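Complex 811.
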Amino acid sequence: MKSRTKVAVIGGGIAGCSTLYHLTQERWSDVVLIERDELTSGTTWHSAAQVTNFGMTQTMVGLKSHSIALYKKLRDDPDYPVGYHHGDGGIRLANTEAQMQAYRHFSSMARGMGVEFEVIDAEECARRHPLISTENLLGGLWDGEDGDIDPAQLCQALAFHARKAGAEVYRSTDVTALTQHGDDTWTVHTNRGDIDADIVVNACGYRVNEVGTMMGVQHPVASMEHQYFVTEDIPAIAEAGHRMPLLRCPISDYYSRQEKGGLLVGFYEQDCKTWGMDGISPAFSNDLCPDDLDRVMDVLEGAFERMPALAEVGIKRIVNGPITYTIDGAPLVGPIPGKRNAFCIIGLRAGVGEGGGHGWLLAQQIVHGEACYDTWVIDPRRFTGHATVELTALKAIEDYQNEFRFHFPHEHRPAGRPAKTTPLTPVLAAEGAEFTVVNGWERVDYIKPSPEFHPSLSFDFDETFDLIAAEVANVQTNVGLCEVNGFNRFEITGTDRHTFLDRLCCGTVAKRAGRVGLGYLLNAHGMLKTEATFANLPASDRGPERVWYGSAAAAEFHDMDWLLSHPGADEDVQIRSLTNDQTILVLAGPKARDVLSACARGDWSAQAFPWLSVREAFVGFAPATIMAVSFSGELAYEIHVPNASLYPAYLALREAGSSHGLKLFGARAVDSMRMEKGFLHWKADILTEFDPFETGLSRFVKLDKGDFVGRDALLKRRENGPTKRLVTLEIATDRAPAHGGASLMRDGRVVGTITSGDWGHRVGKNLAYAFVEPELSNAGTAIELDLCGEMVPATVIPATIYDPKFRLLRA
Ligand SMILES: Cc1cc2nc3c(=O)[nH]c(=O)nc-3n(C[C@H](O)[C@H](O)[C@H](O)COP(=O)(O)OP(=O)(O)OC[C@H]3O[C@@H](n4cnc5c(N)ncnc54)[C@H](O)[C@@H]3O)c2cc1C
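Predicted structure with flavin-adenine dinucleotide bound:
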């Protein structure tokens, strides 16, 4: 065994083998894989090993396409061929029109990644899968690339090719401890001796938290028991004369694929069980959990009804093994929050199919700091402090129970709620608030007309449309109040705070005490990393001169890691998070100044406190930090209040607002209004796949200000010209909003992708943002949107169509 290496990958399942292989593809050959037993002795060996192309985001579709292409290459490799049934096809079933509509959206989205799904009716489903009945079936989504692979051969082949490229694999080598040194390198302690490594990767499957604990981390990953059985030969399969496609059933929660002459059928029962919560025996390796078919009887019946031939044959083999889940069902692939030189590829619940792609994206992140796709949907930093062991288990159970039931727009499932609240949450609930969930925070979505109000789950505009319109109208004509909790807030102190931020930000950073600015931080490739406001607070009895750095709620761990990895050794910069201590009350509308003046001492006139000002004050008697900034486009104030004083501040504002028509509004109204202003959302419209020029943020770039992170790369990108441009579109329908990921078409070709869509209630238009080919970015250009299968005209319009001169928020 080597005594030192560049990367030590711990775990020899599909996650570890794929990472090792792809590191060598990136030409890093000084890399090792450490496996406590034999390769694939965790979950991988007994996997049903289906490989599908379906995903609910473009990143997932893209990484799965990579798996498929790689697996085909390995299948055809004469040196080390792998058994891979590619192209049997697969059907996701549907028995409601809403599911069918969703499949049409997923098809539109996948087309942008070069993947063609087909939405087919019930008869066509039965023609392609002759074993199924069309009872209670509307149709399904056909994925022609589906298939299944031999998981052990796959991992051996990946390890074989990695070894050929210089990597080493140490089997029967148990990692027992990890030590991180002052220079951020690691020593990996094993039962066969120590190995020093620059970087470690946790790819330990269901033992993820044993290795996590070795570095002081609790990963939000829980294991569930999961069963399938394999039947004896089914005569109808032989008679069909072709292999059976895969089936995924969101109606009765099972899947199936062909296994030899019979079927393999797996179940996601409601009466499901977590596994290994209180520790895992060291001896559990190449092992299974005891069979328990009684538990799956409910879903088994559904499978028998759909495929009556199942009832006529015996069961040959039952497999019950642990499968890992995270809080939102997607894995954790990327940097480990709060750690340096540490990555993970964990929480894979469809790891054999996806593993090729995840290892590919992880290797890119390790070697280049970023991958070719924006990887936020699988980023380990997307959950923050709320992701406890117990919450993870609750969400894992819920996710398992809904395995094939994708989320609809605005759907938030009940398990593990409320996770993060403020003193106002019950107050707002009593006012009729319906909540959305943002990084665990319960945030007001809109105010319900009655407790019984439950809008339908749909990709169309739903029954909330008029409610949102009324909330927007009150903000536009009077004044509205909205709680924005969980907004990410760091306090940055130290004499070098501005030099530090200047180096990270591609534009001018506001430095004057009392002023607020907006800035964009790039990665080394010149692409958009994050967006932040910088508020310069004067020295006061509340603290020294300091900058309040504000960014999206979900960015807390992401941005903290990025900031902490940048101060120079001799720079005087301190950063601490206030995210959980402060909450924002947004006061917006033409009467906002009147309300503020009635409850906060001081001169709040446009002259004394113009747009982009910040001041410490009191709302009633509650201490508050007030900023004149606006995401709605109306005159507005962000009132930052310590949580302990939030309720009294709220009461003061409500009382002051009572004579001005003040009403509550929520996140849905905010979203509608921000689209009319051309304001962007991080990780919907602001992605690492595009630079600030492409994203329409040129006015925030100052290339001549001196060096900053990403400048050299950005200069090169500017020379090469944009690959795409972000535009605002007017969509010619009032039936449905454009959904993120949907494809824009011209002459039968995909020319762009939607990032956000919503109805602009003040302008009465259906609005969307999209990245389109640069030559199609001029106002007036006509494109077509594939909106859940219907081709709808879309026209490029100016970015800001409500108050384009920004007069209202300066008033
Ligand atoms: C019944 C069942 C059916 C499934 N069907 C499918 C399917 O059809 N399609 C699909 O894509 N996915 C399927 N999955 C899921 C898929 O099998 C897993 O997502 C995948 O195998 C996980 O791979 P992994 O590499 O993350 O973990 P594992 O395969 O568990 O590998 C982790 C490795 O880490 C090693 N390790 C752990 N701790 C240490 C240590 N301290 N030191 C050194 N080594 C260590 C372990 O020995 C193990 O080999 C199924 C899962 C189950 C249970």
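The radius of gyration is 27 Å.
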